[in-house]
Amino acid sequence: MKFRTFARHIRDAFKSLFRNGWMSIASISAVALTLLLVGSFTGILLNVNKLASDVENDVSVKVYIDLAADPAAQETLKTQLENIANVESITFSSKDEELDKIIGSYGEEFDLFGGDANPLYDAYVLNTTAPEQTKAVAEAASAMQYVTQVEYGGATADKLFETIATIRTIGLVIIIGLLLVAVFLISNTIRITIFSRSTEIEIMRLVGAKNSFIRWPFLIEGAIIGLIGALIPMTFLVFLYRFIFDVSGDYLAGTNFGLLTPNPFLIYISLLMVGIGIFIGAFGSVFSMRRFLKV
């Protein structure tokens, strides 16, 4: 296609947008509202997945060391724990540090257990290469000498992993469903727009215009509608997400949990929305006008 012809198609597409003002606004509104839902739910579900991963990674195996273990025995135990399959890292936590955690969680009334009155045990905290491996690591550690107790959450942790897997599956189904709904709603809205201009298409065919010549302005017009319809909710979601991210930072400060950082998350969401809008807008127009181009 010659550049001059393509430039004419672009000019005709913009003229048609303004000439059919109300239908253009209706199409853009349908695209914007649909993509707002798609972008919002996608953002929510991706952040739920992120928080679920944070929860998984926060599950660790705590191995309490027997009081009979001297420093040499503790080092030997540490080496044995490091050699367990799927152990990623190991950290020592003294009984005083364990008591400080309890005081921080339940109040200063537990101060009376400080010093020689501390009934707690020194412990090794093990992080696994995969959250699902915590149970196997805990079972291996519990069989070792100088281990008095092993904690990893037991049935609660197993239930947590099952719940997280279910959430991820449901989230994926919802996203796919929303994308299909977006395709259906946007395509049908554009189809109504094309149908209202069937006379214009028929006149162009009667004067001898080729199908490709008729199709290109509508394809470009649909792409423009999709682009504008995507930019509106994209701008809204960018400002909204940045606000939510800043507010959530105050509540989640000091924890291992957090939302996806705005960059590059917002870039990916924006590109997704623009891509969906342009693709559905352009090819929705071409698909919808096939019946009017049949000989």
- Mean model confidence by pLDDT: 79
Estimate the global geometry from the Cα principal axes. Answer: rod-shaped
The proportion of residues in beta strands is 5-15%
CA-CA gap between termini: 23 Å
Percent range for helical residues? over 70%
> Low-confidence stretches at least 5 residues in length (pLDDT < 50)?
none
State the order of secondary-structure elements, H for helix, E for strand: HHEHEHEHEHHHHH
Strand order of the largest sheet: 2-3-1-4
Q: How would you characterize the largest beta sheet? A: 4 strands, antiparallel
- Count of extended strands: 4
List the total number of helices.
10
Structural class, from helix and strand content?
alpha+beta
User: What's the gyration radius in Å?
Assistant: 30 Å
- Domain count: 2
Family: Belongs to the ABC-4 integral membrane protein family. FtsX subfamily.
Transmembrane segments: 21-46, 170-195, 216-245, 265-287
Pfam families: FtsX, FtsX_ECD
Protein name: Cell division protein FtsX
